[in-house]
Prior knowledge:
Blueprint: H1 9-36, H2 41-51, E1 57-59, H3 60-67, H4 71-83, E2 87-91, E3 99-103, H5 105-125, H6 132-153
Antiparallel strand pairs: 1-3, 2-3
Helix pairs in contact: 1-5, 2-5, 3-4
Amino acid sequence: xxxxxxLDVEQQRAWRLFQVMQVRLAARLAHDLSxxxxxxxxxxxxxxxxxxxxxxxxxxxxxxxxxxxxxxxxSHQVARMEQRGLVQKVRCGADxxxxxxxxxxxxxxxxxxxAPSHVDAVRRLFVDRxxxxxxxxxxxxxxTVLRAVSDDEGCWPSRP
Length: 160
């Protein structure tokens, strides 16, 4: 077995800052979203994925893959959202074992009401803090890492 390739000081610093930023930014956006809407951050992510589709629907396995979530996590999230009337889960006619998740009128109304405040928070905490060059670099870095994860796992959300 070969020796581990430890991170040097700068690599470790960058990696740890990225981890902390990711966790704290997501937590802050989640808090902001829940205080300005009736949606959790997870609700919002599901509704964004659905409303990005022309017909407002996705197969459950596609939604899970798109979000990078485990099957049980997406199942529980969809069930909670269905109980609150945000989505509907219908059996897929072509595949008796499969199901499709559809955004409801209430779900569409809730995301439309939440989006302006959420986008404002994303701008305030993230976008407006970076230069256009930094944004471009971040997009390139993210695409590169997502490709590596996709190649490693064989099943990751479609490439940006």
